[in-house]
Amino acid sequence: MDLSLSTRTVGDRTVVEVGGEIDVYTAPKLREQLVELVNDGSYHLVVDMEGVDFLDSTGLGVLVGGLKRVRAHEGSLRLVCNQERILKIFRITGLTKVFPIHQTVDEAVAATD
């Protein structure tokens, strides 16, 4: 399975829609996208993971790296995820305490930092 990425702007947030699998093979593509967005001045990101079928530790590492990157610019990285199998990974790893996780993109965009 491949990884699909698309970005759009909603208000002052950049929404990154992710689809497919985020694993050791596809995670570098997501990392490049996040680095590029931050380098271009997008410091408030929403990663929409509704289309993600699989997430491994490499993918988690990329998301944590993205969070560190935006925080260096006093930014934010919010996740949109409502799939139980993906949410379970965040709960098991304790990352629910690190990432704000929302049910919808609208909810994530409306949230204040």
TrEMBL record:
Positive regulator of sigma-B activity. Non-phosphorylated RsbV binds to RsbW, preventing its association with sigma-B. When phosphorylated, releases RsbW, which is then free to complex with and inactivate sigma-B. It comes from Actinacidiphila oryziradicis. GO terms for molecular function: anti-sigma factor antagonist activity. Belongs to the anti-sigma-factor antagonist family. This is Anti-sigma factor antagonist. Coiled coil: none annotated. It comes from the Bacteria. Residues 3-112 form the STAS domain. The keyword Transmembrane does not apply. The keyword Transferase does not apply.
